[in-house]
Amino acid sequence: FKIGILGFRVDSECQLNNSLLIMSDFPNSSYTMDLCFLPETERCLSLPPMEELCIFTRSKISSELFIKLLDIHKNLDLGDLIVH
User: Fold this and answer.
1) Confidence band of 17 (pLDDT split at 50, 70, 90)
2) DSSP letters of 5-66?
3) CB distance 38 to 44 below 8 Å
């Protein structure tokens, strides 16, 4: 069955893995995610498309990664993240 929008707040790699498992159980649903840490670049790019992806961490990401994330996700909120 389909759940309209599944929302996740993720503070660790373990929680991210669990969230992705839940998403795989509901492939026809939409997703939102609040990431409170910055995963490795490859991991960020492997996330399924989200209605909204928020990254709440004081880190830096490359402008290349930023542009790729914009292409994948409908809405992108970088909070205090610095794009360089």
Assistant:
1) very high
2) EEEEEE-SHHHHHHHHHHHHH-TTSEEEEEESS---HHHHHHSPP-SEEEE-SS-EE-HHHH
3) yes
Taking the CB of residue 46, how many other CB atoms lie within 10 A of it? 11
| Phi, psi dihedrals of residue 51, rounded to the nearest 5° | -65, -40
Amino acid at site 15:
Q
Residue 75: closest CA among 15, 5, 25: 5
Q: Identify the three-state secondary structure at position 15.
A: helix
Entry pTM: 0.90
Sequence ranges of the domains in the chain: 5-83
